Amino acid sequence: MTTKEHPSLWGFGTTKTFKIPIEHLDFKYIKKCSDVKHLEKILCVLRSGEEGYYPELTEFCEKRLQGLAPASRALRKDKPAATASSFTAEEWEKIDGDIKSWVSEIKKEENKMYFSETETFPATEDNLPPVRGSNSCLHVGKEKYSKSRPAKKKIPRDYAEWDKFDVEKECLKIDEDYKEKIVVDNKAHLSKIEKRIDTTGLNEKEKDFLATREREKGNEAFNSGDYEEAVMYYTRSISALPTVAAYNNRAQAEIKLQNWNSAFQDCEKVLELEPGNIKALLRRATTYKHQNKLQEAIEDLSKVLDAEPDNDLAKKTLSEVERDLKNSEPASKTETKGKRMVIQEVENSEDEGGKDDGGKHEDGSGDDKPAEPHAMGNIQKKLTGKAEGGKRQARGAPRRGRAAGAGADKRGRPRASATAGSGAKGHPGSGPDAGDPPAPPPAAPAGPAGLKTQGNELFKGGQFAEAAGKYSAAIAQLEPGGSESADDLSILYSNRAACYLKEGNCSGCIQDCNRALELHPFSMKPLLRRAMAYETLEQYGKAYVDYKTVLQMDCGVQLANDSINRITRILMELDGPNWREKLSPIPAVPTSAPLGGWRPAAETTSNQVGDSSSHHQLGVTDEKMFKALKEEGNQCVKDKNYKDAVSKYSECLKINNKECAIYTNRALCYLKLCQFEEAKQDCDQALQIDDGNMKAYYRRALAHKGLKNYQKSLTDLNKVLLLDPNIAEAKMELEEITRFLNIKDNTASFNKEKERRKIEIQEVNESNEEEPERPSMEVSAACLASEKGDKSNWLPEYSEKLQISKPNNAYEFGQVINAINTRKDKEACAHLLAITAPEDLPMLLSNKLEGDTFLLLIQSLKNDLIVKDPSLVYQHLLYLSKAERFKMMLTLISKGQKEQIEQLFDDLSDTPNNHFTLEDIQALKRQYEL
Amino acid sequence: MLSGAHLALSELTKSNLLGRLRAEYGKREGQTVSNVWSLVSRLVFCRGLGGVVAGGEIGWAMSAFEKPQIIAHIQKGLNYTVFDCKWVPCSAKFVTMGNFARGTGVIQLYEIQHGDLKLLREIEKAKPIKCGTFGAASLQQRYLATGDFGGNLHIWNLEAPETPVYSVKGHKEIINTIDGIGGLGIGEGAPEIVTGSRDGTVKVWDPRQKHDPVANMEAVQGENKRDCWTVAFGNAYNQEERVVCAGYDNGDIKLFDLRNMSLRWETNIKNGVCSLEFDRKDISMNKLVATSLEGKFHVFDMRTQHPTKGFASVSEKAHKSTVWQVRHLPQNRELFLTAGGAGSLHLWKYEYPIQRSKKDSEGVEMGVAGSVSLLQNVTLSTQPISSLDWSPDKRGLCICSSFDQTVRVLIVTKLHKI
After folding, report:
1. Is A373 within 8 Å of A295 (Cβ atoms)?
2. Engineering a disulfide at A241: which of A41, A211, A597, A773 sits with its beta carbon 3.0 to 4.6 angstroms away?
3. Which pLDDT value is given to residue A643?
4. A517 Cβ partners below 8 Å, 6+ apart?
5. Inter-axis angle of helices A558-575 and A540-553, to 10 degrees?
6. CB half-sphere exposure, A370, CA atoms < 13 A
């Protein structure tokens, strides 16, 4: 700016620049002015000094502007760089010290690097992509910039080259370019980012460096709201070097993407690496919350609050969860809840039998209702188990121990949605349940009931001592009542026992359990709690007896099963092979006992059902009958006696024809009995009662399939998947049905043949899936075999229920093996082995070789493959012995399994072959430590 | 006389200055201008030496320490015109590159030792060295690639600098700018170097291939050749993808896709493009900052490309004069520092909009630009700051060189809190 050499052209009225009236350069005006632009101009004029210097006015104007628009550009001033003197001594020391320490550190690093540098050209060059080829000419099209081949002269094209010009090709290229310009895929990069980083040949430091950088990229992506990309980079970071931070961050990103399951798994990983990690706990709580496992969420949150009582986020989430919990409570009282429970039991027991794959699915199907935290937990565990496949188990004992501990812990907490939850699952566990009593008798005084509720609340909140106090008070009130309130008292004692157990007061717990059992012999929870207390006190014998008793009542109690296994081992170690003799006799449980005693939840259920379906006129006897019949029916299903089960269920329905679960259960039996029409009708009935019942849909789909109504089956499966897209079985069925439909279309001309064939295939499928040992299988298999002759081109596709294609990597292989494993389908496994190259086996198994997989492989080699191709068997065995965890495996397998392997080897040596000699086999046998 | 010359120079602004500088360098290998420069700045520098070198006794009490502070930690006067400075990765060392008064080129290697700079090595070469990069070097080797006034691309082993490891006469005229990728673990794929020159071409080199570039982007014959002032690699998130962005004296910005060998996008920001940088080279293009001769810079959101509208951008008038350089913080891509013609440094933060993309009237995705906010600004010198480099290893450590023949080590505090 020039100085005021020239008189202002605008006269006195305005300033030269901006033409601002002179009057505006005034304190009063500036004070009032709220026009930022105008103020900026005034400031500019004032600063320029063209109207004279007014330092105070300038400062005032600045302040005013600062107040109005702190980000105003006019306020930016040239500032000198900060120096040591602009900080307090302390701050400066910190800054300076930081730099100094970094300098010395990096120098050390550098020296190390310098000395460790051995080869002049590091091997990293090996895996570099090739030099950008001479074919890479820049194609700028119509733009000003032309391409020129770098290998040639820079003149774009000479005449000779034009001769070679392929118009079509160039046009195509331009078209492509054009297309690319038009359809810009702005998300394309996501799929193209490598998920893994090749870290071969890197030392820990470099890996750490890489991992950190990838994590930073992830953080940046996260901060910009690009969560998918963030997940990608965290995954890369983890692939370079798994760190707590990366897992934790990925969990957070997954939460943002609402991938609760992945987030949950990441949290688990963090907690495995670093138990008690606050962030991971918080995040796991969030995943629990969204998966409606409110109880677990509360548990995690209270852990966080124990460590950091002021954690606001935890507090907030906790209050939210508790609110959700309250909201879900009424829901749990509705009839759906009750119905589901029952099914659960049937399925659970089937599951434990380890036979039925369908059961697993059914279990999952209960999972759509948010009011069912427990079932969710169940499916969750299963899904993760499945998804993670062998990995989880491979981690072995410590992990399992932890999980069991956690499980016990979970069970230890009362389910808020009361009642239903834990009772339903057949894990009455150790938590006191609000619904423990078979619906509080009206006669019961309000005081004790209220106290008990309070106690339950306190227990939920983790205040065990206070809860115990409440229960004690309730007991004190009820005590005089004597036998009338025996049931209630029993429950109160049982609940107090749970509190004591939590507190670690085992003897108190045992006493209470004893009292509870006196009042109510053979009730499950006190027994379980006493068992746990005994176990804690290392009185393993007594614990064993209690667990056994529990198992007599319900063999599906996972906790008891686990504990029995554990204790058996301990007892064997302690007392040697004759440990059983030292045990006190296990009391025989009267058959009627469980009904009254340990399934109060079921009772509540039917009460509730009654309420909702105008069923409350039902006499008590009827109700009991109903339950008893249902129990028997379930038992029959467990025993695979489907006919009897059907009759039991039918009787049930005579008493109460509004019970959805009975229909679905009976449908299952009909399915097993191949009475598809009846199964379908039952499902229809069930759906009439509850049109969101996934099990009914699924079973009807199966029934439709059996009836060859593939289209309808398809519709039903779609409905199932609509309700819960995560049900693998339904997906599998869906695929299969779709295939059927396609083939039906294709082979429409072979109508006659088709029909017959279909039925048989159907049966094979059914039997494969549901019950491999059914006799009809042989028949159908025989049919299949005979048919293979004429229509071998498409039959094999059917013969394996599983679609087995050649696995390309360890992951695919693991998936197939898992699927086979759940079915125990040795044929499929044999097929898999037949199509898998033996030398790939170690790669495919990677570190996932496990007892059951191993056994399965051996069995299928022994049963199926040895006859067909002994050399393949030999090859497989050879390469199996080179798999990663093979040695470990050998130490873990049992005698019986060893014998099987031995047999296989014997068979192998018996079959003459020129691909291998007896010496080879002997050598291999040594590998197998035989 | 002294202050007069000084004034005259600092008043030389904008295109005038840049244009002259570049023109002079091109024709007479920079002697005239750089001589004036070195003379003037040396005098200026000597005058202010007492106060400045010791870390500055400037009595400037700042209270608001919530903001990041830019500290001039160490300053060192040089006896040559410095054009570029770069940290040696994994060390407390850096190199400065420039032009001796006698018309030769120089590379100096400095190390931070006890709060001061120690000259470890000085290498003199025939031609003034304009720019350099470690971007294509492995962490073990740390070879420096340089471009000089004669249009030569060299790669030096600083331990044995007598003969270059790689040498090619890449351009007919001065190499204004250079960038590297694939080294230092940054960017997937092969190590490559891109150079931009006054002869209007942008060439990509692979150190494994002698003599010829692996890609060459140049104007069609007959068209005006524009002076390429800046180049930058980006989008190298996997082995195949890679782009080069080039900025020209007429304000053109061109984005070349090296995978398809196509021009992916171009725009014009009206004024000469002095510096371009992607916020990260090794991720899918996220942001690109372009600084201009007229004191503005533009931030493009490179995630969402609209078929016709291209990329969304936000611009900010940052400095009163040319913005010579922009450099993103290696540890946080949303922060970047711009270096201005009047010796000022501005630290910026980019803030994303709530939605980074939206659908236009035809339902095609288009990007939405965010906003930039100034976190801190300082004025270090009266002369333009010609180059700027963040330490890849230490957050907040930075070097800059300016035309007053000074190299400065800066510390920016509180960066981790943003």
Report:
1. yes
2. A211
3. 79
4. A490, A523, A526, A527, A530
5. 150
6. 15
8 Å CB contact of A106 and B393: yes
CB atoms within 10 A of CB A427: 27
Q: Collapsing DSSP states into helix, strand and coil, what is residue B196?
A: strand
Q: Can you tell me the mean pLDDT for B238-265?
A: 89
> Which residues of chain B neighbour A133 with C-beta distances below 8 Å?
214
Q: What's the helix, strand, coil split of chain B in %, to 5?
A: 10, 45, 40
Predicted confidence (pLDDT) per residue in A652-681, tens digit = 777 777 777 788 888 888 887 778 888 888
Contacts of B75 in chain A (CB under 8 A): none
Q: Determine whether the interchain pair A140/B263 forms a contact, defined as Cβ–Cβ distance below 8 Å.
A: yes
- Identify the CA nearest to B177 among candidates B263, B273, B243: B273
Greatest alpha-carbon pair distance for chain A in Å reads 120
CA of A163 to nearest chain B CA: how many angstroms apart? 20
Q: Mark yes or no for CB contact B215/A217 under 8 Å.
A: no
The DSSP bridge partners found for residue B95 are B86, B109
Query: Do residues A17 and A51 touch, judged by C-beta distance below 8 A?
Result: no
Are B343 and B383 a contacting pair, CB within 8 Å?
yes
Chain A residues whose beta carbon lies within 8 Å of the beta carbon of residue B258: 132, 136
**Which pLDDT belongs to residue B104?**
94
Tell me how close the Cα of B229 comes to any Cα of chain A, in angstroms: 16
Q: Pick the residue of B63, B66, B69 with the most A CBs within 10 A to test the interface with A by mutation.
A: B69
DSSP B283: S
Q: What is the CA radius of gyration of chain A?
A: 37
Side chain identity at A576, as an amino acid letter? G
0.90 surpassed by complex ipTM: no
Cα separation, B133 vs B149, whole angstroms: 16
**SS3 call for B131:** strand
Put simply, the answer to whether A131 touches B214 (Cβ < 8 Å) is yes
Using DSSP, state whether B261 is helix, strand or coil: coil
Q: Do B307 and A183 touch (CB under 8 A)?
A: yes
Phi (first) and psi of residue A257, to 5 degrees? -85, 0
Q: End-to-end CA distance of chain B, in Å?
A: 46
B45: amino acid identity, one letter: F
**Res A621 pLDDT > 60:** yes
Considering only CA atoms, which of A44, A4, A2, A3 is closest in space to residue A24? Answer: A44
d(CA B187, CA B166): 21
Q: For testing the chain A interface, which of B91, B235, B299 should be mutated: the one with the most A CBs within 10 Å? A: B91
Q: Are A194 and B238 in contact (CB < 8 Å)? A: yes
| Cross-chain residue pair A76–B374, CB shorter than 8 Å | yes
* pLDDT of amino acid B77: 92
- Asked if B112's CB is within 8 angstroms of A103's CB, the reply is yes
**C-alpha dihedral, B198 to B201 to B207 to B208, nearest 10°:** -150
Task: Specify the DSSP element, H or E, that contains B166.
Answer: strand B166-169
Between CA A300 and CA A288 the distance in angstroms is 9
